[in-house]
Amino acid sequence: MRMPYRRLGRSGLKVSLLSFGSWVSFGAQVDEDLALDCMTAAREQGVNFFDNAEAYAAGESERIMGRALARADWARKSYVVSTKLFWGLDDGVNTSNTLNRKYLQQAIEGSLDRFGLDFVDLVFCHRSDPETPIEETVWAMHDMITRGQALYWGTSEWAADEIRAAYEIAERHHLHKPVMEQPQYNLLHRSRVEQEYSRLYEDCGLGLTTWSPLASGVLTGKYLNGIPEGSRAALPGYEWLRDELTDAKVNAGVRKLKTVADELQCTLAQLAIAWCARNPHVSTVITGATSVEQVNENLQSLAVLPKLTDSILKRIDELLPGD
Question: What mean pLDDT comes out for the span 75-100?
Fold first, then answer.
């Protein structure tokens, strides 16, 4: 099945329905050579959006992706790359957990230097900052775009009222508006995308670049019998994931979901990714991988999309109603 492309919200930019991201994997599990192999495999199947963030592997993820892009030597007009800013790379009072003007201006300069790029296509405010006025952040993001350091800006895991406030400030002052939001969205985490944001799609033209379609791997079934060696939950620093990944009730639902995947002749991962992609408000589903084989498996989710009939979706809802 050919890769579909969807507009990023109300913007004119088109992104591949499935995209490739570097969270957790780049730096911890994926080096530069493997990153290039995975990104190339994704691109050859139509992926044009590659997601990243300043905080991933403390900046190393941007460096790895940047070097891979340089080696690939793809035309810059042919791909879309993102970063996200908020956490910072050190603990200074104006360099971490903030969206103030000083931090944002210096953070985007650091990201571009690590990428080796003149600009990123998308830049996200990685979390909201209750200590900085939203108006200050909106002006800073507007200026970032005006300087040509990014083409579109958006948010990640912001509350609906915060997104609306940013949009209305930008509209009032004729500034560049937030175009997209990057929320977690999967069979276990649904309410924000399906309920909280429901008015924003029409009112603000919000597009979604969703993350964690596999709920950090639990929806692949790999944690049905505990935590396997080498998995994400076994990595140092990801202990916070373990309780969720080994939750008995969740895994009981995943076991039942496997019967649906078997009927559709696909893997649990492919079913979970296709389920996310079937939502028309989702511009792109960000997938991750630590091997070319995993990239290929994820992208085969496109073939599952036509199989998600109303009756199948109803059965899935009954097995895993989510939050």
Answer: 97
Report helix angle 101-115 to 60-72, nearest 10: 40
Catalytic residue from among 56, 103, 167, 197: 56
Residue 286 has pLDDT above 90, yes or no: yes
282: part of which helix (H) or strand (E)? strand 282-287
Q: What is the pTM of this model?
A: 0.94
* Residue 238 a catalytic site member: no
pLDDT tens, residue by residue, 244-282: 777 788 888 999 999 999 999 999 999 999 999 999 999
Between CA 277 and CA 17 the distance in angstroms is 7
What domains appear along the chain, each with residue ranges and CATH number? 5-319 (3.20.20.100)
Helix (H) or strand (E) holding 134: helix 134-146
DSSP lists the bridge partners of residue 26 as: 30
At which residue do the structure tokens 């775009």 appear?
Answer: 145
Contact 181, 140 (CB under 8 A): no
